[in-house]
Write a structure and sequence with these properties.
Order of helices and strands: EHHEEEHEHEE
Strand content: 25-35%
Oligomer: single chain
Number of strands: 7
Largest sheet: 7 strands, mixed
Strand order of the largest sheet: 1-2-3-4-5-7-6
Distance between the termini: 28 Å
Number of helices: 4
Helix content: 25-40%
Shape: globular
């Protein structure tokens, strides 16, 4: 467990630290529905959207980027009151509480911003650490789309939709 994780707004200078682990996680194809060969420019635009969306980084006392999250409305119009978020932790810093800190931060941000709930659209059921983390932070698996995700080694697995009302 980390002694301290600081979460702050991400800025353009953070991208070079995010990109290597972002690329590796997406290329592995085990946890995200993104194209496994997504190029850097597309990745950066998608991960660091303009406000009112928000992208943050988790850093240690030395300023090392440990992980990142992006948060925004899940839908537009009449469904814009539901937030969503995506998270990535550098595997070199996994298992140290970074994901929990980012998750708790995202939930608090959504509540403080006035969202009524948060929904995760696509949590791969074989990503058991993430599923357990989200459940511990108050999320419920609302449904699972059978065979909704093609895992590179496990074949077709379920894709959870997880939800938390505030």
């Amino acid at each position: 467990m980390l002694a301290r994780v600081l979460i702050r707004e991400a800025n353009a200078a953070d991208w070079p630290a995010i990109w290597p682990f972002f690329r590796a996680i997406v290329a592995a194809g085990e946890t995200y529905t993104y194209a496994r060969d997504m190029d850097e420019a597309t990745s950066r635009t998608m991960w660091m959207p303009a406000p009112p969306a928000r992208t943050v980084v988790a850093v240690d006392d030395d300023g090392t980027v440990l992980g990142t999250a992006k948060m925004h409305a899940n839908h537009m119009g009449g469904a814009a009151h539901i937030a969503t978020a995506s998270f990535m932790v550098d595997p070199a810093h996994g298992g140290r509480g970074v994901g929990r800190a980012l998750g708790a931060h995202a939930v608090e941000w959504a509540r403080a911003t006035g969202f009524r709930a948060m929904q995760f659209n696509a949590v791969v059921e074989t990503n058991t650490r993430a599923v357990a983390l989200w459940k511990s932070l108050g999320f419920t698996v609302m449904t699972t789309l059978p065979e909704g995700f093609r895992h590179p080694t496990k074949g077709y697995v379920g894709l959870h939709i997880m939800y938390q009302r505030f």
